[in-house]
Amino acid sequence: MSQTASARNQRTMITTLRSRRLRWLPVVIALAVGLPSQGTATEAPPAGQGIAIPNFWNPRARQERIDTPQAGRTIRFLTDDEFPPLHFPGPDGTPTGFSVELARAVCEKLALTCTVQARRFDTLLDALSDKQGDVVAAAIPLTPALRARFLATRPYFRWPGRFIARTDKGLPVPSAASLAGRSVGVVAGSAHAAYLAAFFPKAVARDVTDLAAAEGALRRGEVDYVFADGLNLALWIGGIESAQCCAFIGGDYLENRYFGEGIGLVTRPDDAVLTRALDDALQQVWDDGKYAELYLRFFPVSPF
């Protein structure tokens, strides 16, 4: 799959996520406000929690001490407020969400004064380029086209491919052998369809026009599995439309060629010192367990 096709797939996936925001937003707000912080980056979730926390860092790795942005500088973060659980308005209208709170945690580590301003999603990169802000903390995929214009940290979140199945069928964990002859709902022309064909060639792909159609077919028992973006599937599994019929089965798939690099904090090319400082702070946020705390708060059903 080409980089262009992968980027197009990510845009489609994000469009689907954004279409679900109104249904999911009340749930996310309630959990973000009311769920106590739990877990650490190096410990398993508490008994019964069962939430997988992804690790995009090496906990034993340490960067050399790097310069921090000049004292007295206020770092202006730009985000969007229509993309839960990554960024959305809190009960008082203040931007919150996993990306936003992670940005605030990074600022605390760097002992910097930071502000967060919400803008329309499709204006964020132009606003950054025009120096109306210093960092974009939003679900903008890291692609070669983006890196040609901007700097970015290492990914702090990625888009895993996942299988889901009905919980009452006792189906085997997906593998090239176990999926032979079994039906898998998949969005036609997507990266997930290409991945299924390449690595599970004996599966019977049931192409559908959109993810909602695949999920409905699974709920009705018309297909054995669905293979799609893990975050979209997590929102469906945790929502009322699934009727608690289904759950993830098997592990996550993160091949960059198909599913992209993920998302990071994006800065201008002339702000390399800030980019390195943000990377260092993200490592610290992982090391001290703050990343896990925020993840448990905003992802009641983990996409991983």
From TrEMBL:
<protein>
    <submittedName>
        <fullName>Amino acid ABC transporter substrate-binding protein, PAAT family</fullName>
    </submittedName>
</protein>
<dbReference type="InterPro" id="IPR001638">
    <property type="entry name" value="Solute-binding_3/MltF_N"/>
</dbReference>
<keyword id="KW-0732">Signal</keyword>
<dbReference type="Pfam" id="PF00497">
    <property type="entry name" value="SBP_bac_3"/>
</dbReference>
<feature type="domain" description="Solute-binding protein family 3/N-terminal">
    <location>
        <begin position="74"/>
        <end position="302"/>
    </location>
</feature>
